[in-house]
Amino acid sequence: MSHLAIAASALTHAFPAARGSVQALRGVDLRIEPGQFFGLFGPNGAGKTTLIRILATLIRPTSGTAQVHGFDVVRQAAQVRAHIGLVFSNENTFYGRLTGRQNLEFFAALQNLPRRAARRRAAELLEFFSLTPAAQVPFQTYSTGMRQKLNVARALLHNPPVLFLDEPTKGMDVLSAENLRSLLRMELVERQHRTVMLTTHDLEEMETLCDQVGILDHGQLRAVGAPADLIREASASVVYRLELVGRVNGFTRHLSNLPNVQSVTVASQTEHATVLDLTFADSHTPESELWQAILAQNVKVKRFGPKDDGLATLLKRPEQNV
Amino acid sequence: MTKLLAFLQRGFLHASSYRLNFFGAYLGTALSVVFFAILAQFYGNARSAALAPYGDYFTFLLIGGVFARYLSLGLRNFGRELELELAVGTLEPMLVTATAPALALLGPSLWTLLEGLLLMLGQLALGILFFNADFSHANWLSALTLAALAFVALNAWGLLSAAFVLVFKRAEPLGWLVDVTLFMLAGVYFPVSVMPRVLQVVAYALPLSHALEGLRFALMRGDSLSALARYVFILLGFDVLLLPLSLVAFRAALNHVKRAGSLGHY
After folding, report:
1. For the whole model, what pTM was predicted?
2. ipTM of model over 0.90
3. Cβ–Cβ contact B17 with A under 8 A
4. Which end of chain A has less neighbouring CB within 10 Å, N or C?
């Protein structure tokens, strides 16, 4: 049995389509240690949800292998399901006419909890997520925040060591999302040492919550690493932003002729300011030549520095191997 | 057992939350007994010779009506409940629990089957207590055996319908058959023998026709199992044919939607 919480090797999945198939995952290799908060980041259609669904045994991979908590997701699907919790991105995955408590008790029974234990566990989780006052109210009257909390509570009913969260804060207000994030990080990972895999479009969420981040794009895992390392290596200050005072004409040509400069683009221009993005071929920036050019043109610099797009930078680059 | 009870409880809570519909169903089934009584009284004086092997027309109607209703539940119930779970969005959350996929997919139907059984017993009791349905000669062992065999055959057919729902998301390809077979061909209101020869051939290709005929002989004449051996073997034949077929189809459908990633689609 592998000591890894989640592992995938050459995992591919193709959805059948009217003409041929749509390749959702292309040879994904992944290794996630127990107790890690792992984030899957990528644009729409990158394959994040497909990957999570394969790991949760809802989709069968076309080829390759994957294990969760040491169990194969195809051959040992039942054991996998006993060790995972899945938080769905869709908030409407409960019986609307049943109360929050009734919903949790039903799903607890499906997780093999005896009746009394199911009742106790449901009450604990309702209390933990501050849903006790709404426990006896039909689910269909819950707000989005309450629904997502119940969604997370359901995934924790059987105390799974591995938790998958597919965009858990989608549609939540800022405060509720912040509360949920801190609960996920502080309680589930740092205190309870669970392994969490999260997908999100929220860069800040990814950067602040995750120990490790995987960048998935067009079904391929482009990079895996700590968010700070990825940002540093990805940005490596390849793109610098130069903000000048006033409207500056013809200056881009001078900058384009500097050594190592690949391109200069005008990000914005008004009567009061000109913002330029300078792309260098590598992390070497010819600062002395740059300042000489600036002095020669007699332009006033308002700000100059690396343009930091965070993890999004990775998605803008054609290839990245970290 | 805990899971079966959880499914039953969930089904009851969900069904009873629609109060008017819930109690309306009980009222409707009670009224259907009254309808049978009126129909029997109306045709009482003009009885066909085809009814001679059975006994009184009201008991004939009652047995046909209540058993056809219950047995036909198995035919449509699995697919219908599956459609509901897909629409509500609860199917996938059930399928990631520690519950076997087959139970997660079919468990939602349990309440309807239990409720149907209770309604059927209630209808029979109403018929006996208020409208003098005659079960004085009934051979209950024969009746239970035939009912169980028919239940398996029709539920196996229902599993096929559920397999359709999994793949095509609608059970319609088989659904229309229920109404046709129930009211036209299976002999709910009249014996199959009064139908034209061609329709009789079609009728006897359906398990429900054999089930109703056998049940009537068991409950109205008290025929023993050996006397009803023909019906037992025919229904057993349907079971042997339909059950493996439906299980294979259901498994294939589940594998297909897992590969296609369309398990939760609606």
Report:
1. 0.80
2. no
3. yes
4. N
